[in-house]
Design goal:
Shape: globular
Structural class: alpha/beta
Helix content: 25-40%
Distance between the termini: 13 Å
Strand order of the largest sheet: 4-3-2-1-10-11
Oligomer: single chain
Radius of gyration: 18 Å
Length: 254
């Protein structure tokens, strides 16, 4: 039985991340170490800091990462890609060219006999009015069409600048630390969700950029994946055990 892997939030191409090429190479090396052990890889969103597909062009770069995704799918490994809040605007390129399976909404799926609820996490439990407004605008088809009329030279520049500003307005560019079970939006959301969906065993989220591994009930366990900017964390499910691990260069990976 082969493993199933989960990771998220690499934000490749971010102007706020130093040594972006090294970061991409590290991610690719990790994917290379697991390619023969993996039945499936779930990428839970924001793998790119800004991804917008125009009809005849996509953002330049990322060739090593995109090539590795293509290699995995050519080998028969399922690669599931969840859109996040930085890479909503994919319209078929990743599916056609790289063979990924795209998900725009949370997914409930049985994996090796256990029920998983898998999502990027943005918009789940977050009650901020400003965030909700921007999220609705980003998902609005008319707004997407209007943005597509911008020349890529300016559209992609604007998107990357916005993404950098979004990260750098936080202290030291870092996410707020763990706020506790009652204040973390994803944990609050999950607590409400399991009241009506008690069959779920594991909830796996990205988005938050911190590591959380919490048993909410006797059955339901929640993991927030961290990121691939500073944590380089991922989750492995082998059919018997689910565990959160960190990729360290030179170490053998499970």
């Amino acid at each position: 039985m082969k493993n199933i892997y989960f990771l998220s939030d690499a934000h490749l191409g971010s102007w706020a991340v130093e040594h972006g090429r090294m970061q991409e190479r590290r991610l690719v090396r990790f994917l290379d170490t697991i390619k023969t052990k993996a039945a499936a890889v779930y990428l839970l969103g924001d793998m790119f800091d800004f991804w917008y597909e125009y009809r005849y062009c996509v953002p330049k770069g990322y060739t090593r990462f995109l090539g590795k995704l293509s290699e995995l799918t050519d080998m028969g490994v399922e690669v599931h890609y969840f859109t996040g809040n930085h890479d909503i605007w994919t319209y078929g390129y990743l599916e056609r060219e790289c063979g990924v399976i795209l998900h725009r909404k949370p997914l409930t799926v049985e994996l090796y006999g256990k029920i998983f609820y898998i999502a990027h996490g943005d918009g789940l439990g977050d009650t901020g009015k400003g965030f909700k407004f921007i999220r609705a605008m980003f998902h609005n088809r008319a707004c997407q069409w209007a943005f597509s009329t911008l020349h890529p030279r300016w559209g992609i520049w604007f998107g990357q600048t916005w993404a950098k500003h979004s990260r750098m307005k936080r202290p030291d560019g870092e996410e707020p630390p763990y706020m506790g079970e009652e204040r973390e939006p994803l944990l609050r959301y999950t607590q409400r969700y399991i009241q009506y969906h008690s069959n779920v065993d594991y909830f796996i989220y990205g988005h938050r950029h911190i590591e959380i591994d919490k048993q909410l009930t006797k059955k339901a366990r929640v993991i927030v994946l961290g990121d691939w900017i500073s944590h380089f964390t991922y989750v492995v499910w082998d059919g018997d055990h689910l565990f959160l691990s960190q990729y360290i260069e030179g170490e053998s990976q499970v």
